[in-house]
Amino acid sequence: MNILKINNQDIINPSSLVWDESDLISDEGSGINMNGKVFRDRIDTKRRITASFPPMNDAQMSSLLEAISPAFFDLEYPDPRLGKRETITVYVGERSVPVYMYDEASGQWIWQGISVEFTER
Fold this sequence. Notes:
Layout: E1 5-6, E2 9-10, E3 16-25, E4 31-32, E5 38-39, E6 42-52, E7 56-57, H1 58-67, E8 73-79, E9 84-92, E10 99-103, E11 108-111, E12 115-120
Antiparallel strand pairs: 1-2, 1-8, 3-6, 4-5, 6-12, 7-11, 8-9, 9-12, 10-11
């Protein structure tokens, strides 16, 4: 089974996967009162999945970059809090892919890998 799916399509398995969950807090409804008690108005929680991928050839890297190119897309992943696979709508920010080497035998570049942060919409 593939670890991740983008828009219900299997993608290459990452070499590492990190799950994060963050609270979105209202500026107006959060702070410290006169008694020194902290209060906060949680608006929502958002998940972020950071995936690091192994080296890939041109075709594999192109396929992954095309899959993450839309402004928003669906990501299916294993969610540790829910204890099951979950699908969320995400976006990706920066993309940076270093070149590893040119493989003369295959006539393709080998890309060192990529780390992608999938942030919940």
